[in-house]
Amino acid sequence: MSKLLVIGCGGVASVAIQKCCQNSETFSELVLASRTKSKCDALAQQLEGKTKTKIATAQVDADSVDELVELIRRVRPDAVLNVALPYQDLTIMDACLECGVDYIDTANYEPEDTDDPAWRAVYEKRIKEEGFSAYFDYSWQWAYQKKFEDAGLTALLGTGFDPGVTSVFVSYAKKHYFDRIDTVDILDCNGGDHGYAFATNFNPEINLREVSAPGSYWEDGRWLEIPAMSVKREYDFPEVGKKDMYLLHHEEIEALGKHYPEIRRIRFFMTFGQSYLTHMNCLENVGMLSTTPIDFNGQKIVPIQFLKALLPDPASLGPRTVGKTNIGCVISGEKDGKRKTIFIYNVCDHQACYRELGSQAISYTTGVPAMIGTALVLNGVWKKPGVFTTDEFDPDPYMDMLNQYGLPWVVDESPAVVD
Ligand code: NDP
Is residue 390 within 6 Å of ligand 1 at its C-beta? Predict the structure, then answer.
């Protein structure tokens, strides 16, 4: 029996909230708060009479610590689930510390304004020291470790699918299949087709920033960076088929590299069709992916935010998307002196997600683990003071809940490897 404050009411939040309502024993009360309160009200109304969970709604600007503190003091939740944007991670963590509540999110911090000189100074230093240039990284949130520890509070970071489930797949493999892991290839395949020439499956601004950045991977204790989309492989995904995939920087590599120093190489690949890449390159070449504001007819406009306004809302893709996702980890290492490789993965069907919750599979595969991570913190199973990613806890209860709440997984013990 606990009360959860959910911040944000977009595609991922909608799934996480509906899944919390399927688990009313843990989530007896929810308060849905977002910038646009009408979205929270609409979802609360849709769920009325269909769940034992009591639901209330509120308006909040999560960029303001003062507004968040006022809201948290009024609501008095047991934990806060941040499914707004990565831009709000630090303000929400600050407010949780001030009010003494646990914090959970699905994506690590990145700033909205990448031209901010104070942030840029830290960023440039990090590029030199660490060797990767993505805008997002864990250093900002890991810096809260001592504060959460001293306060006796838990911050669980990145409990979506990737990061989130993929990191749990690695800790599960280490616990049950390997004495030593040597390499991990995280593969994210979306075999879905929404029928648009170009659309993104989650928040366009965050998605396009991520995929247009240089790729990088972890090898022998250091980062190696490559030009965006310059490493391509083909993989035959169970239940989806052959797809081209490209090496990207991704946040779980950073956490796994730190927490599993034995792993010699960690890479992340995502599938893209040619049409997506052609559109993205064109938009980038004309400056539409820029985060720097420009003057247009006396108004300041951020090109990537304007582009977001033109693109389909990812939450609206549900009814039109057909096909499946296959996301998982190809893991190689040694067990009892013998070499072995396994592929742990989940296959998720876009239309099945739509029938169950009115959402496409990308929001579904993120929202379900957001609920699971939150439930484990609230139930005390994954509760310890400090700031943690999902690879730092016992994976078994999380893996059980994936099976229970709609993301069943498979372990293939003789998969194809990625060269
Ligand atoms: P959406 O854009 O659909 O939703 C974001 C929500 O946050 C909207 O309701 C928005 O409000 C709200 N919001 C934005 N700014 C504020 C603010 N200042 N104050 C209050 N509310 C605000 O995004 P998604 O649902 O697609 O993504 C949600 C999160 O999930 C993101 O952090 C994303 O990076 C992460 N993610 C993680 C994945 C994983 O596997 N780990 C995969 C996919 C996404 P409004 O309606 O007013 O715009």
Answer: no
Higher pLDDT, 316 or 262: 262
**Mutational test site, ligand 1, from 203, 305, 372, max ligand atoms within 8 Å of CB:** 203
- Using CA atoms, how far apart are residues 240 and 259, in angstroms rounded to an integer? 32
Residue-wise pLDDT for 78-98, tens only, equals 999 999 999 999 999 999 999
The confidence score (pLDDT) of residue 253 equals: 98
Share of the chain above pLDDT 70, in %: 100
**Which residue's CA lies nearest to atom 14 of ligand 1?**
84
The CA distance from 270 to 268, in Å, is 7
Q: Region 162-183: what's the mean pLDDT?
A: 98
What number does the ligand 1 atom closest to the CA of 201 have?
A: 26
Taking only the tens place, the pLDDT of each residue in 54-81 is: 999 999 999 999 999 999 999 999 999 9
Ligand 1 mutation target, pool 12, 88, 141, 304, most atoms within 8 A of CB: 12
Q: What Rg value do the Cα atoms of the chain yield, rounded?
A: 20
How far does the centroid of ligand 1 lie from the alpha carbon of residue 167, in Å? Answer: 21
Strands (E), 125-249: 154-157, 180-190, 215-219, 222-226, 232-237, 241-247
Tell me what pLDDT residue 273 has: 87
Cβ of 10 below 6 Å from ligand 1: yes
User: How far, in Å, from the CA of 197 to the mean position of ligand 1?
Assistant: 23
Global pTM reads: 0.95
* Ligand 1 contacts CB of residue 314 (under 6 A): yes
Tell me how far the alpha carbon of residue 139 lies from the centroid of ligand 1, in angstroms: 21
**CA–CA distance, 314 with 296 (Å, rounded to integer):** 27
pLDDT at 109 over 90: yes
Give the Cα separation of 79 and 150 in Å (integer): 17
How many angstroms separate the CA atoms of 205 and 372, rounded? 26
Kind and range of the H or E run holding 387: strand 386-389
Calpha distance 212→53 (Å, rounded): 40
Separation of alpha carbons 178 and 232, rounded Å? 28
Closest among 379, 373, 383, 391 to 153, alpha carbons compared: 383
Query: Given this model, what pLDDT does residue 215 score?
Result: 96
- Tell me if 12 CB under 6 Å of ligand 1: yes
What average pLDDT does this structure show over 172-189?
98
Ligand 1 centroid distance, CA of 224 (Å) = 30
Report pLDDT for 57.
98
